[in-house]
Amino acid sequence: MNDLTRQSDRVLEDARRLRDDNRAGGRHRRSSSIGQGSQAIKRANWTLRIRNIVIALFTILVAAGIAGAMFDGIGFFGVMSVLVAAIVATALFSSFPKVKVPKRADLTKGDVRTMVGRTEIWLEHQRPALPAPAVKVVEDMGVQLDALGLQLEAIDQQHPAAQEVRKLVGDVLPETIDAYRRIPQNLRQEKRAGATPDEQLTESLTRISREIDHVTRQLAEGSLDDLAIKTRYLEYRYGENEQTSKES
After folding, report:
1. Distance between the two ends of the chain, CA-based, in angstroms?
2. Which of 6, 97, 110, 242 has the highest CB neighbour count under 10 A?
């Protein structure tokens, strides 16, 4: 268990370093990865693009070679056609396929690594619609999700605690953001019940962030029973917050 805790701490430190490097990009920050899970998905997507480019260029060269053998050379026009085809293929496969934004219903599907990566990708695409303080919380959350995913891999995925955590990450967290996004833009800075929807969202995300950190530490300590009770309480608590946001 100590080895797992040290490994989790190392993931947290690496993820924080990644986050800080991304933030150093300044105005490009909102297009950066918030965690290692989403970065792995993007890396796999780029690998697929590069593979497609290589296949396309190889196919073009083979076709040009066959044409040259059949017609005793392809001439200047043929060479230019091959060059244009290579440029077009490279430009096309450099942009496609794009990384798909997961649907809400798909966030908790698959193994732990898939769940974490999908959730991080989904959160990254919510940033443009969120107020600046909430964006910062979301970006910090990527670090925590990476560490949480590592801890979840070490327990039985059918354990009630693991199912509760999946619900926290795949249901409670996205529903909090969706509830905010359903509020009309012109009402998000109007104060109701002592706080604006912008402030309510930031507070809710901050609490969820703290709970993810708490859950990660409990998993590292093996406190699974306490974890299930704590997460159910959180769901009840945030169910009330979401209703408040909708009414606002």
Report:
1. 45
2. 242
Q: Six-digit token pair at 216?
A: 């990660």
Helices (DSSP H) in the chain: which residue ranges? 2-23, 36-71, 75-95, 112-126, 132-152, 160-167, 173-181, 197-221, 224-247
Phi, psi dihedrals of residue 17, rounded to the nearest 5°: -65, -40
Question: Read out DSSP for 88-132?
Answer: HHHHHHHH-SPPPPPPGGGTT-S-HHHHHHHHHHHHHHHGGGS-H
pLDDT digits (tens, 9 = 90+) for 12-35: 565 555 555 555 544 444 558 999
Nearest-angstrom CA–CA distance, 234 and 171: 12
- Scan for tokens 């998905």, then name that residue: 41
What angle in degrees, to the nearest 10, is found between the helix axes of 132-152 and 2-23? 150
CB 18 within 8 A of CB 39: yes
Task: Give this prediction's pTM.
Answer: 0.76
The pLDDT of residue 242 is above 70: no
Report residue 14 CA to chain centroid gap.
16
CA dist 176 to 9, 165, 239, 245, Å? 28, 15, 9, 9
Q: Are 38 and 121 spatial neighbours (Cβ–Cβ below 8 Å)?
A: yes
At which residue do the structure tokens 């077009």 appear? 88
Delimit the domains of the chain by residue range: 2-26+102-247, 42-95
Convert the pLDDT of each residue in 35-52 to its tens digit.
999 999 999 999 999 999
